[in-house]
Write a structure and sequence with these properties.
The chain has one domain: Cytidine Deaminase, domain 2, CATH 3.40.140. The protein is about 40% helix and about 20% strand. The longest helix is centred in the N-terminal third of the chain and has 25 residues.
Length: about 160
């Protein structure tokens, strides 16, 4: 690459990074509605899509599905993160959440949910249900794609 192209690319990368920070700040604002699946997919792809390790995040919502908080609850390695439903339930109760949406990334770039992903979804749904907190969706995201488990009838 010649120097002027390199400088131009650096300026573009800086502009992209700034735009992503703005989008993340706006999408993650308390009170933001989490009603549309496509908006939620984009939100979690933005937060998790480029990560090199697996992370599990939870968006805690009020009774009108507005955002109370979004938190990275668990982190793991390149191919897995241990999720503890008890910890998610404790945090949901502490925030007085009525519902949650969860997401995790697949650093491999393959967005299809695994059997383990489906199992943890069922465990979370059952645990949260005991305290009347609804699990609305579980997204598996990569940099290029997001899969909604609710859209597939798995939540």
């Amino acid at each position: 690459m010649i120097p002027s192209e390199e400088a131009s690319r650096r300026r573009e990368d800086q502009a992209i990074a700034r735009a992503l920070r703005i989008l993340e700040r706006r999408a993650g604002s308390p009170g933001q509605s989490f009603g549309e699946v496509s908006a939620c997919e984009s939100f979690f792809r933005l937060r998790l899509g480029g990560e090199m390790r697996e992370h599990f995040e939870v968006a805690f919502l009020d009774s009108r599905h507005r955002l109370i908080a979004v938190e990275r609850m668990f982190s793991g390695s390149v191919d897995g993160a241990q999720v503890y439903p008890r910890v998610v339930v404790q945090r949901a109760l502490a925030l007085n959440a009525a519902a949650v949406m969860v997401a995790h990334n697949h650093p491999s770039g393959y967005a299809e949910p695994s059997a383990a992903d489906r199992a943890v979804t069922a465990q979370l749904k059952n645990a949260l249900g005991l305290v009347e907190v609804r699990l609305l969706d579980h997204f598996v995201v990569t940099a290029d794609r997001a899969v909604s488990m609710a859209a597939r009838g798995w939540v």
